[in-house]
Amino acid sequence: MKENQSKKILALIxxxxxxxxxxxxxCKAYHEKEDCFSLYSSYLGEALSTPAKLKAGLLSFYDYAGxxxxxxxxxxxxxxxxxxxxxxxxxxxxxxxxxxxxKDGSLGLFAPEAQALEEKAQNIxxxxxxxxxxxxxxxxxxxxxxxxxxxFLLPKGLKxxxxxxxxxxxxxxxNKGVKSFDLRKDFGEKGKDxxxxxxxxxxxxxxxxxxxxxRITAENLxxxxxxxxxxxCLKRENFKEESYDKIFLGSLGKRVGLLYAGSDDFxxxxxxxxxxxxxxxxxxxxxxxxxxxxxxxAWIFKENLKRDYFSANVYATYAGGSMPLxxxxxxLIKGKKLLVLADSFADTLLPFLSIGCxxxxxxxxxxxxxxxxxxxxxxxxxxxxIIYNPSAINNDDFFNFG
Amino acid sequence: xxxxxxxxxxxxxxxxxxxxxxxxFKSRNLQNIFLFMGSLLxxxxxxxxxxxxxxxxxxxxxxxxxxxxxxxxxxxxxxxxYTLSALxxxxxxxxxxxxxxxxxxxxxxxxxxxxxxxxxxxIGISFFTFxxxxxxxxxxxxxxxxQRNPIYAGLYISFFPQLIAGPIVRYESVASQxxxxxxxxxxxxxxxxxxxxxxxxxxxxxxSMALIADRAFEENLxxxxxxxxxxxxxxxxxxxxxxxxxxxxxxxxxxxxxxxxENFNYPYLAxxxxxxxxxxxxxxxxxxxxxxxxxxxxxxxxxxxxxxxNLLLVxxxxxxxxxxxxxxxxxxxxxxxxxxxxxxxDFDEKLQKLTPLKRFYSLFFVLMGWVLFRAQDLNGxxxxxxAMFGPGVAAFDSNFWFYLxxxxxxxxxxxxxxxxxxxxxxxxxxxxxxxxxxxxxxxxxxLFLFALSYVVKGSYNPFIYFNF
Lengths: 402, 468
Fold this sequence. Notes:
The structure holds 2 protein chains of 2 kinds. By secondary structure, chain A is α/β, with parallel strands linked by helices. Chain A has 2 domains: 3-73, no CATH class; 99-399, no CATH class. Chain A has 14 helices and 12 strands. Chain A has helices spanning 3-31, 33-44, 50-66, 68-71, 75-88, 117-133, 162-175, 191-195, 207-225, 251-256, 258-261, 295-299, 350-353, 372-379, and strands spanning 99-101, 107-109, 137-142, 180-182, 239-248, 264-271, 277-282, 288-293, 325-330, 337-342, 359-363, 383-388. In chain A, strand 3 (137-142), helix 7 and strand 4 form a beta-alpha-beta unit. The longest helix of chain A is centred in the N-terminal third of the chain and has 29 residues, at 3-31. Chain A is globular and about 85 Å long. Chain A starts with a helix and ends in a 14-residue tail after the last strand. The two termini of chain B are 15 Å apart. Chain B is mainly alpha-helical. Chain B is built from 20 helices and no strands. At the A-B interface, helix 1, helix 3 and helix 5 of A face helix 1, helix 9, helix 18, helix 19 and helix 20 of B.
């Protein structure tokens, strides 16, 4: 009889847990009733009969329940618990989504071997020819990724192909005569110094690294394309810094929770001198946002700068995160015009680079649905840049220039 | 729907428990109808159309069951019913599971050029057709009476805990429970314990072993070390995966007052291949024994040739049951060879005196069998064997060290929990004092919570036996 005590206690715990899950999700569904109703309305359409309503109700319930993995109640707590479980595991293995804990405790994302690199290089070559006809040069800039080639921080035995993919792509571009520039060579730090260029909980580089990358890019554009940008204004000492401690849980950290990943500090860097921009942000939902004024007013989305670890994206403080198209005019400069095809690493590079250009148009090829040739013909850029971090090479969408 | 999913744990199960115990507790009839409807919903989740196949199977077998009862004692009539039942159930299985395979085979043998539509395999069809067939046979044999109520027959065939991955419950063992079962908090608690243990095995042990096994079996250039590590991991994965599902099924059955049969008895403790099959997927082994092997004459036949034929047929069918693929058929025939050898030479009995060797013998041949079972195709299996034994293969590579280093705790835990000692130790510990019992319950509850976090995180969560 006594042995059954443990089973009975366990049964009570079990019943409490599953019914908490049921009630929690019911409450969550109630709070999201507008979503549920819109789902229901989309299934119901114009029909008004009772069977149609019943069917729509069942389908929307089925749909909602099917997405429980993504939107279950207590999700944040569970993710933190997951991180705790991984933390107490003496040998936490990499997640199947590619998230890996590096030896210094920061999180990385390892990439598989990229496919069809030759085809991707050919697409860039074809774009170059198209742009040339429109009077614009093209330069491919290879950014740096968090995991260095043969990085000692990577758990032994784990292969990351991001850098070798980038090397192969650069070699293929060189063979085709496409101009390229490898920013990785300018970041020669090793080990922990290299890691410190990136957020611990995110695969992105820090704002400070983005600024440094912007200055190196500007120097290169001056040298090779005669851009005449004032690179001194991109020196760190010419920027104001606001520090936000433990405010940021990066996208990798969001997958494993605070208890495993910890959190990152975030530095908001803005020019200490006068600036004047007019930026138009074309969002994925079709809406546009117009932001005008100083660098801070035009480029900074301060609403993202909050300690809401799982919901806020602090990295998107600059340029608002990934958007299909951003057009920005620098009202204080009569200089060159740039069109940039970029991934999210550019969010903390291009705002700084815009300080030295007259106009900057940023396209995210994953999201942009318009015609790139038309856009180029309209904008008439002096130079088109393609700026990708090494792990973006695995994503075919970045090389589909429509 | 799978047991280790949030829709099951946070929606389906609490709603079913609520309806069963709070709303309908006064009427067994309503409880059974509710469980039947819930089981259909469980089955329809993901692919609603296949529920009609289930309903067709229930209706046909219910009618055949009535027919079997009516013709009980009349050899000819009963034979007709059995034939009809076999034609219907195995015909259904053939169409959905083996038609494409047979057509491809015929195409390659007869060299004709024609295409037929690929038929999707309805989940759990191998389990519920075998169960439905046993319903008709058990009634014909007089071991149980036919259900007058089609809902009850439907509940037996479609009862959600054992619907899609067993255990294959024979009708005679649950017939009386459909109406006469008794629920109690003690039973419910035992069921919860079984369910949680199964859930933990699945999430913590099987899923992490799957990461190693999948890598090893998908790798083109395997080192010898990774090949052995991979097959060991697969052996642990398939055991913890399938036995976990059975533990959860038996546990869920108990929560509703049903006693479902145990499906595993520490198979890697086996001292011979015959012993292994007495411990592995017990419900399938006994099904083949009672509905194929013994009706053919079993071991009590006059000639060795007949015995070999009986064994060959049973093991061919066992292999085929697992899937329409040559690797499964060969896997079945591999066991035919081993078991025929043991039966004819009594090799296993002679081996019993050599304690460590008998376990090694059994484990070695089971592992070799798993290679055939897991490989994508025959070429893949041959390449894998080559990596394990062939010349010119690197002893170790960085992958081997990576998996060994990163999965050492999971591998150790998976290996330890494949044997009865940890369970016995915990039972003894629980018996000592109330604080120990409390610690056990709270500890298991916490582990369940952690395991839930893995499910929420969406970790790798494959269920092997759903494919069968």
